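Case study 2.
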Amino acid sequence: MTPLFNKVLLVIAFVLTTIITSGQCNEKNFAFQEGEVINYHAYYNWGFIWLNAGMVTFTVDKTQVDNKPAYYLKSHGSTYGTYDKLFEVRDTFETKVDINSLKPFEFKRITNEGSTHAEYYYTFNHKGKSILADIQKEEEPRKKTTISWDDCAADILTMVYKARNIDFSPYKTNDKIPIKMLVDGAIHETYIRYLGKETIKNRDGRRFNCLKFSPLLVEGTIFESGEDMTVWVTDDKNRIPIIVEAKILIGSVKAVFVDVKGLRHPNTAELKPN
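Prediction:
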């Protein structure tokens, strides 16, 4: 079980950022605002047992890049102290995006998982349509490269916030929505399948009206290729992810909504107790 703990928080951060986006670009932000903070429990399934392994938090602040107003988006995942002795995880994702178009300016990902350490830095050249990538993986030599940038593509943290601002009204159940996402120094073209609307119950018994999706996963060291992930987001103007479930090579992981503060809109998706 121990070798998989280094994947749990990384997977949760990944699945939450592959939720929903389309060929649309430069979305106008209506879903979130400065001061929003969302918390999730990260669960790992071992046999018949779901282990609450850690916490993932997403925050929105304001900053400036080259004297332009920007959102400073952050996600941090860490194992609980109980599990640190077994396998300590401290993962951080940060990105700065244009406050109007949500185009990324720069991205940083630092992962500390047990004895392994990795760093990813992307700088987005808006005029030159290119990305300067600076990547250091464990003991490998630091790699610097330039990637051609289609500005519909973005880093994984930017995507979750862009996704929350998409107009879903044109889509029908089982429609495929193309996505482009920058992961591990490469842009991947895949899709998500829209699965309609559903009312779900959280682990604490709270019920939410949700939109449901299944992304096509990219095969790698964590996932097998296929649609082995399901995502539910609130069916209101906030578009908050409530539950994310995914199969990995061994076992399953789940991100479960805990609480939020600083919402831009009233929480109309949550149903009152019976």
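The chain is about 10% helix and 50% strand.
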